[in-house]
Design goal:
It is built from 7 helices and no strands. By secondary structure, the chain is mainly alpha-helical. It has one domain. α1 packs antiparallel against α4, α1 crosses α5 and α2 crosses α4. The longest helix is centred in the middle third of the chain and has 30 residues.
Length: 174
């Protein structure tokens, strides 16, 4: 009979295998990134093309051409509309960047990363929801709804129990 070396004899029994990242965490990351990108694209569109977008929105609401709107809309109304769209665009950019950064940092499922992602996802829901429920072009509305739905799904997926177990297993391993 041969004896096997043991840990007590100074031999390592082998390191425990690394915990496997759950699919729910990967899905949360992917959905957060999609929601963030929708918010970023919407923000860029609104911040860069605010004047043209505002004229298109007015023309669509009035049922006239953009040239007619440009000719009759006072400059002060145009300036206010452009400022509003630019501000919304900046807000969409800021929350989109935050959601993208903290969505990507979810890889370890740490509680701080899930909390930060949730905060930015909720802000994205507010900003994207405002854009999606207001007058706008079809692209703006679609991207707004995509940001809202992506953010809500990311929040739900990030807080599923499998992700918490994974985070605890990673912490115990280190």
């Amino acid at each position: 009979m041969t004896s096997q070396p043991t840990a007590a004899a100074g031999y390592d029994q082998g390191a425990a295998p690394a915990p496997q990242r759950p699919g729910t965490l990967l899905a949360a990351i992917a959905v957060a990134v999609v929601g963030a990108l929708a918010s970023l694209v919407n923000g860029i569109l609104m911040a860069v093309g605010a004047e043209d977008l505002f004229i298109d929105i007015l023309a669509s609401a009035a049922g006239v051409s953009a040239e007619e709107v440009s000719a009759v809309v006072p400059a002060i109304v145009l300036d206010e509309g452009v400022d509003t769209l630019s501000t919304r665009g900046t807000m969409a950019l800021v929350v989109g960047v935050g959601l993208l950064v903290f969505g990507a940092l979810l890889r370890g499922a740490a509680v701080w990363a899930r909390v930060a992602m949730t905060v930015f996802a909720l802000a994205t829901v507010l900003v994207g929801g405002r854009v999606a429920t207001d007058e706008g072009t079809g692209l703006m509305l679609g991207l707004g709804w995509l940001a809202v739905v992506g953010s809500i799904v990311a929040i739900v997926l990030a807080w599923l129990p499998a992700n918490h177990r994974y985070a605890k297993a990673l912490k115990a391993k280190n």
